[in-house]
Amino acid sequence: MISSPEQHIVDAAIVSRRSIRAFLPTPVSRADIEAILEVAARAPSGTNTQPWKVYVLTGAGKERLSARILAAHLDPAQAALHREEYAYYPSVWTSPFIERRRKVGWDLYALLGLTRDNKTGMAAQHGRNYQFFGAPVGFIFTIDRVMEQGSWLDYGMFLQNIMVSARGRGLDTCPQAAFTQYHKIIAEELALPPGEMVVCGMSLGFADPDKIENTLRTERESLPGFVKFVD
Q1: For a Cys staple, 227 with which of 102, 104, 148, 223, CB 3.0–4.6 Å?
Q2: Do residues 195 and 10 lie in contact, with contact meaning Cβ atoms separated by under 8 Å?
Q3: In degrees rounded to 5, what are phi and psi of residue 93?
Q4: What is d(CA 7, CA 177) in angstroms, rounded to the nearest whole number?
Q5: Given this model, what pLDDT does residue 48 score?
C-alpha cells in the first residue's frame, strides 16, 4: 500500500468533515477565504469549463439576506410562494434512501429535544439554515443556466474541495440545499444576472464545541453495501 504523510493529512481532512449546525462568531480572515477558494478552483471540470460562481457574504450583507429569507420562511403564506428551481431530492423516495434521510433528521431532532409533534420547533431549527447557523461567512453558489448535467457533477467536486480545504485550516462548513427554495430573494439581494441559477449555500466558520447539535455523527454504508470488485 502506498502511504505518505500528505495522504494522511488529506484523509484526516476528509473524514473529519461534518455538517456543522452551530458556529462561533469568530471571524474568518479574507486571506483564508480566498486561499480556500483558490484551492477549490483546482477541481476538475469537463474541458476546463469551471462552471462555478461564488458570492461571499459577511457582515451586514449576510444579515440582510438572512433576515429576508427567514421572514419568508416563518410566514406560511410567504413560504408557499417560493419553490426550488431544480429537484435536489427525488420526487418518490425508495429504500434505502428514505431510511437514511429519516434517521439523520430524527437523530438531530432528538439531540435538540424536538419531538415529532413540535412543528414550531422543527421549523425554527430549519430556519437556522437561513442564518448560516451563526457562521461569520456564508457562500451562495450559482451556475450559468446554459450548463448541463455534467457541469453539475463538476460543481460537486468544487464544493467538496472547499469543505476539505476548510478542514485543513481548522475551519468547518455546512453545505445547504435549503437556500434553493428562496432563489428569488437571493437573486434580488445579490443582483444575480438572469442567466445564473442558485445551486446551494454553505456556511463557513469555527464549530461551537458547546452546542449539542454538533455532536451528531452520521453513519456511512460499509464497502460491501456499495462496492463491487470485478476481476
Answers
A1: 223
A2: no
A3: -85, 135
A4: 30
A5: 98
Place of cell 437571493: 186
- What is the predicted pLDDT for the residue at 8? 85
Q: Dihedrals φ, ψ of 12, to 5°?
A: -65, -40
Task: Please compute, for residue 141, the number of CA atoms within 13 A of its CA located in the half-sphere on the CB side.
Answer: 22
Assess contact for 216 and 108: CB atoms under 8 A.
yes
pLDDT in tens, 53-112: 999 999 999 999 999 999 999 999 999 999 999 999 999 999 999 999 999 999 999 999
Average of per-residue pLDDT across 177-201? 98
**Residue 124, Cβ density class (10 Å: 0-12 exposed, 13-18 middle, ≥19 buried):** middle
Among 123, 227, 213, 139, which residue's Cα sits nearest to residue 177?
A: 139
Q: Residue written as cell 442564518?
A: 131
**What string of H, E and C letters represents the secondary structure of the chain?**
CCCCHHHHHHHHHHHCCCECCCECCCCCCHHHHHHHHHHHCCCCCHHHCCCCEEEEECHHHHHHHHHHHHHHHCCHHHHCCCCCCCCCCCCCCCCCHHHHHHHHHHHHHHHCCCCCCCHHHHHHHHHHHHHHHHCCEEEEEEEECCCCHHHHHHHHHHHHHHHHHHHHCCCEEEEEHHHHHHHHHHHHHHCCCCCEEEEEEEEEECECCCCHHHHCCCCCCCHHHHCCCCC
**How many residues are given for the chain?**
231
Asked whether 42 and 52 are in contact (CB, 8 A), the reply is no
